[in-house]
Design a protein that fits this description.
Blueprint lengths: L1 H10 L3 E2 L2 E2 L11 E4 L5 E4 L11 E5 L9 H12 L3 E5 L3 H6 L7 E2 L6 H7 L4 E2 L5 E4 L2 E4 L4 H14 L1 H11 L26 H8 L8 H8 L3 H12 L3 H19 L4 H8 L4 H12 L3 H8 L12
Parallel strand pairs: 5-6, 6-10, 7-8
Antiparallel strand pairs: 1-2, 3-4, 9-10
């Protein structure tokens, strides 16, 4: 139930100029009561034909491996052949693998299922230590809350960082993690796992326009640089400066999407120093120059955008 609720909760919070950014439809191979691992039955009235009307097909897994339903596998294979974006949460990856969509592709799944996935489908490349992976038109996520990161990544790809971060705020979940618009595998930061550096992270977020150093962060936290680095990595899975650069880039994306500030002023507001530095980081992370990124996403308020079912 949790994995199924994630996409509905997040996609339905997207509004562009007062209009829904997505239409979400739940479908199944056998319409009617569908049993869940939560012990509740869910009444689903739509069959698998809905996949062919969709722009994105998302398989929500149960958290444990089950033999993929042949009808669902066939429908997913047809949807992929028709050019649909295909994604999975948790054990939904087994359907994608059975459909042959992960052959010679990178993928991930819930850690307890990783060994079985690779044993059954050795032609895929398993990325077992990340939250989600995008490889071409196919996206896979790890278990449970990683589905949130996957859906926010999809929203950001379609509508930009400002919209995705607003959805995250409305849902009271962590802001969207790294990932760009390129067609290569995306490796996000792991989730924050501790609170010792919470105040310092918040302080840094409020001072992104300043040239913060490791010494500045350590001084605010009241600890040594060595201790800060160790604690920061334990909590966020990244070094302090890696985390700081990611936050600067997310701020830059929001400013490019929501303001008409010059590139120099955007760079200055994010602490990136210069327009040349902003450009280098944007191209490396998104495959787009700042001006191309703005052209692609700054008009989001005037379009209804793509739909997903």
């Amino acid at each position: 139930m949790f994995n199924l609720a994630i996409p509905d909760m997040l996609f339905t919070k997207v509004e562009i100029d007062g209009a829904p950014g997505y239409e979400v439809t739940i479908c199944t191979s056998a319409p009617g009561p569908v049993a869940t691992t939560s012990g509740l039955d869910l009444n689903v009235h739509t069959g698998l034909d809905a996949m062919m009307d969709a722009d994105t097909v998302l398989l929500a897994g149960s958290g444990r491996h089950e033999t993929p339903d042949p009808a669902t596998v066939h429908a997913v294979k047809e949807a992929a052949a028709a050019g649909k974006r295909i994604a999975s949460i948790c054990s939904g990856v087994f359907v994608l693998a059975e459909a042959g969509l992960l052959d010679s592709r990178s993928a991930t799944t819930y850690w307890s299922l990783a060994g079985e996935l690779l044993d059954r489908y050795p032609s895929l490349t398993l990325k077992g230590d990340v939250l989600y992976v995008q490889d071409g038109q196919v996206l896979t996520s790890s278990g449970y809350a990683a589905g949130i990161d996957l859906c926010l990544h999809i929203i950001r790809t379609d509508y930009g960082a400002a919209v995705a971060n607003e959805v995250a705020r409305l849902a009271l979940v962590a802001p969207v993690r790294p990932g760009g618009q390129t067609q290569f595998t995306q490796t996000p930061l792991p989730p924050v796992r501790g609170t010792a550096c919470t105040d310092t992270r918040g302080w840094a977020m409020r001072n992104l326009d300043k040239p913060l150093t490791l010494t500045d962060l350590a001084r605010h936290a009241g600890i040594s640089v060595r201790t800060l680095t160790r604690r920061f990595h334990a909590e966020s899975g990244a070094s302090p400066l890696q985390w700081l650069l990611h936050q600067r880039m997310e701020r830059a994306k929001e400013l490019l999407e929501t303001t008409t500030l010059s590139m120099d002023r955007v760079a200055d507001a994010c602490g990136l120093g210069s327009a040349d530095s902003l450009r280098a980081h944007m191209v490396r992370r998104t495959g787009l120059t700042p001006s191309a990124y703005r052209a692609q996403f700054s008009h989001l308020g005037t379009t209804n955008g793509p739909a997903t079912r």
